[in-house]
C-alpha cells in the first residue's frame, strides 16, 4: 500500500517487477494479493499498460473464483480498472474477458471496469446503463450484487462537469427509494463528486464496512492521502512562470457590508508561495498585478496591471 500511494502515477518499472512477483505468488493471502493489485493499478493509473493488465487478469481470474467470499476479493477488479481510468473505449478488449468468468462475478467485473474507464466522461449512455443495473430487483443464484457499485459508477461517470454533476444528483435522489443495498451506496456516490483514484478505493471498501474498515483492514483509510492536498497559494505569470508577490493573509470576513469594505481581518503580509490555514483568505498586497481568478487559492495567474504607476 505504501508503495502504491508513494509512487501513484509514476509508471515505475522497478516496482512493477517487484509487485508482480508478489502478485503471482499463490501462497500469499488474499489481502496481500488485493493490495498488490491496487498498488499496481495506482502506479500505472490511466496508462492502459498491457503487461500489467495481462498479469492482473491472469491472477485475478484465478483468485476471484477461488476466494469469492473474502471481502477484499472485490477490490481485485478495481486494481485492473484503475489502469483504464478515464480511457473510455480502451477498456473494451479487457471487458470482453468477463464472458469467460463465473456468473458470480461477470456483471460486477463489467460494472467496475466500465465505471473506471468512463470516469469523468459524462457519457449519458453509460449512466443509463448503470441506472439499469441499479433497477434490477433480483439476482441470479450466487451472483454478486453489482448494484451498489453501479451507484458509485454513476457518480464517477458524471463527475467533473456542472451539468453532469446535476444529472447524477437527480439520478441518485431517485435511487434513494430503491432497494436497501442501493440506498446505502447513495451517500458514498454523492461524496465521490469532489477527487478520484484514492476516493474510489476507499469507497469500494466502504461498501463492506463491517467486514473491512471496522475490523482488520482499517488502514484502507490511508488511501485518502491521494485525495488530499494542502491549501497553497502559488502565483504565476501568463507564461506559468513562478512569481513572488506580497499578499495579505487573514481571517475571512463579510464582504460588502457598510463600514466593513475589507474581505479579511487580522492579516499578516507574506510572499508567495504561502500556505493558507483553515478559515484564512488572501488578497494581493500590490497593485502591480491583476489576478485572473476572483479567489486567491491554489495556482493563480497574474497579469500586469496596465494602470500601475511606480511610486
Automatic annotation (TrEMBL):
Q: Which domain of life is it from?
A: Eukaryota
Arranged from A to Z, the UniProt key words for this protein are: Membrane, Repeat, Transmembrane, Transmembrane helix
Residue span, 26S proteasome non-ATPase regulatory subunit RPN1 C-terminal domain: 255-308
GO cellular component entries: nucleus; proteasome regulatory particle, base subcomplex; proteasome storage granule
The signal peptide stretch is none
Give yes or no: UniProt keyword Transmembrane.
yes
One GO process term, biological-process aspect: proteasome-mediated ubiquitin-dependent protein catabolic process
| Ranges that cross the membrane | 185-205
Keyword Membrane set for record: yes
- Protein name per the record: 26S proteasome non-ATPase regulatory subunit RPN1 C-terminal domain-containing protein
Q: Which organism is it from?
A: Pisum sativum
Amino acid at each position: 500500500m505504501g508503495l502504491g500511494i508513494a509512487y501513484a502515477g509514476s509508471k515505475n518499472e522497478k516496482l512493477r517487477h517487484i509487485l508482480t512477483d508478489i502478485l503471482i505468488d499463490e501462497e500469499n493471502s488474499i489481502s496481500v494479493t488485493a493490495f498488490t493489485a491496487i498498488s499496481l493499478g495506482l502506479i500505472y493509473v490511466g496508462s492502459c499498460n498491457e503487461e500489467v493488465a495481462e498479469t492482473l487478469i491472469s491472477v485475478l481470474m484465478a483468485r476471484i473464483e477461488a476466494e469469492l467470499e473474502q471481502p477484499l476479493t472485490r477490490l481485485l477488479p478495481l486494481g485492473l480498472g484503475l489502469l483504464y481510468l478515464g480511457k473510455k473505449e480502451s477498456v473494451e478488449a479487457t471487458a470482453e474477458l468477463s464472458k469467460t468468468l463465473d456468473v458470480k462475478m461477470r456483471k460486477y467485473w463489467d460494472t467496475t471496469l466500465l465505471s473506471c474507464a468512463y470516469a469523468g466522461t459524462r457519457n449519458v449512455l453509460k449512466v443509463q446503463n448503470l441506472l439499469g443495473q441499479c433497477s434490477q430487483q433480483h439476482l441470479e443464484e450466487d451472483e454478486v450484487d453489482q448494484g451498489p457499485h453501479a451507484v458509485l459508477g454513476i457518480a464517477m461517470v458524471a463527475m467533473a462537469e456542472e451539468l453532469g454533476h446535476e444529472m447524477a444528483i437527480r439520478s441518485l435522489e431517485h435511487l434513494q427509494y430503491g432497494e436497501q443495498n442501493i440506498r446505502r451506496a447513495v451517500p458514498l456516490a454523492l461524496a465521490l463528486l469532489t477527487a478520484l483514484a484514492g476516493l474510489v478505493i476507499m469507497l469500494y471498501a466502504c461498501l463492506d464496512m463491517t467486514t473491512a474498515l471496522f475490523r482488520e483492514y482499517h488502514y484502507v483509510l490511508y488511501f485518502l492521502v491521494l485525495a488530499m492536498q494542502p491549501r497553497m497559494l502559488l502565483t504565476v505569470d501568463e507564461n506559468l512562470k513562478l512569481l513572488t508577490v506580497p499578499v495579505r493573509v487573514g481571517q475571512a470576513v463579510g464582504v460588502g457590508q457598510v463600514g466593513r469594505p475589507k474581505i479579511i481581518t487580522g492579516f499578516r503580509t507574506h510572499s508567495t508561495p504561502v500556505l493558507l490555514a483553515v478559515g484564512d483568505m488572501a488578497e494581493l498586497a500590490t497593485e502591480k498585478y491583476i489576478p485572473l481568478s476572483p479567489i486567491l487559492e491554489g495556482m493563480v495567474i497574474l497579469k500586469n496591471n496596465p494602470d500601475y504607476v511606480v511610486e
